[in-house]
Amino acid sequence: MHLALIISVIPLLLAACDEDLCRSNTPCTLEGKCTTAGGACVVGSDEDCLRAASCEQEGRCTAKVMACAASPDLSVSDAGAAGPDLSSCFGTEKRCVAGTDADCGRATACKKTGACKASGDVCVPGSDSHCKSSEACSDEGACALVNNKCAPTSNTHCQSASGCSGYGRCAFSKIYSKCIAGSNTHCKDSSIACGYQGKCTALSGECVASTDKDCRASDGCPALGHCTLSGSACAAGSDADCRTSDACTKNGKCKASGGRCV
Known about the structure:
The protein is α+β, with helices and mostly antiparallel strands. The chain is built from 15 helices and 16 strands. The chain has a domain at about 210-260. About 35% of the residues lie in helices and about 20% in strands. The strands form eight sheets. It has a two-stranded antiparallel ribbon with strand order 1-2. Strands 3-4 form a two-stranded antiparallel sheet. Strands 5-6 form a two-stranded antiparallel sheet.
């Protein structure tokens, strides 16, 4: 009697072990392949998708039956922390997709890039308002919807972004469809590129270092010992650069090596 009960419970225990193995491997945490089916780890439900990083980051929070090719060549027993490839299946399988605008609205991609609308199973920007509320707008001036992507379309977009005040990228380039450093003034007024890194000259749309004077005047000189021009950047050119820096006096990094104080 007891033996029969034990035998009847064994399949349930094995199934539970298989389920636990699927939920502990990389495809579950990344793609929602957390359910055991036919000896493989697959997407079983919306719940599987909701626990995956692809939901939080990309809005792929809904399980959808998709057509696919080939047969599974990886059993549950083969699944491991290395992240096995479980993309193949018989005929159809469920995959995690962006099923609703709500999926996209709670995703990191909506906040960062304006991809707040579900379209074709993925999240994309759906309006200028999506772009304007994104970090891509505040950081890079990508505040308008252009060809299904957020991008800058004017100098105003660029000049209102942190990329202008920090890195001198204040001018809109129609050629590159992005904000660039359009003049030396843009660079000289930048707090990070010129103020900290000594990159005060505009060259090919970017701010670069061009003189020892700019390097010595930058905050990176007393902080890091980056007081000497090296190519298009400021670097620690000698032990003397390092000895007067915070890197030396506070952290004991008083010798120049490879452009840094060590």
